[in-house]
Every structure is written in structure tokens, then in C-alpha cells.
TrEMBL record:
Keywords: Lyase. This is Enoyl-CoA hydratase. The keyword Lyase applies. Belongs to the enoyl-CoA hydratase/isomerase family. One of its GO terms (molecular function) is hydro-lyase activity. InterPro entries: ClpP/crotonase-like_dom_sf, Enoyl-CoA_hydra/iso, Enoyl-CoA_hydra_C. Pfam families: ECH_1 (PF00378). The lineage of its organism: Bacteria, Pseudomonadati, Thermodesulfobacteriota, Desulfobacteria, Desulfobacterales. It comes from Desulfosarcina ovata subsp. ovata.
Length: 79
């Protein structure tokens, strides 16, 4: 719970943190959160494994690892 006058700044802060991540991963996380509400735990785990398989070889994932090793901010392209 936060005070109403703090909420807009806090929401912006969280939105900026989310937006700084790889777009494909953010989209997949949102999809998993929404779809997971209607799945059993076993199906949810299987779905997360499916998403991992799709995201595992993306350029953004490789960029994230490269940026981390070079101690710089990643430049995600949504690919």
C-alpha cells in the first residue's frame, strides 16, 4: 500500500524498470502471467518451459549476456 500522492511516481518507476528489459521477454512474462491464471501448476510450468525455449536463442538474450560481461547497458532490439 502506498499513499495516493506517491502512486503516479511509483508506477512510473516500475514501468521504466520493466521497459528497460528485453521486449520479447517482457511480452512473454505478461503473457505467462495472464494465461497462467487459467492453468494448473503443471501446465503453467510446461508453458514457462515452452517460452524459455522460444526466448533462449534470441538476439536480445545474447545481447544481455554480452552487455553484462562488458559491464554496459544492453541495447535490446526486440529480436
Amino acid at each position: 500500500m502506498v499513499e495516493p500522492d506517491v502512486l503516479p511516481d511509483l508506477a512510473k518507476k516500475y514501468a521504466e524498470r520493466i521497459a528497460a528489459n528485453a521486449p520479447l521477454s517482457v511480452k512473454a512474462a505478461k503473457q505467462a502471467a495472464v494465461m497462467g491464471l487459467d492453468m494448473s501448476l503443471d501446465h503453467g510450468i510446461a508453458f514457462s518451459h515452452l517460452l524459455w525455449g522460444v526466448l533462449r536463442d534470441t538476439e536480445d538474450r545474447k545481447e544481455g549476456f554480452q552487455a553484462f560481461s562488458e559491464k554496459r547497458a544492453p541495447a535490446y532490439k526486440g529480436k
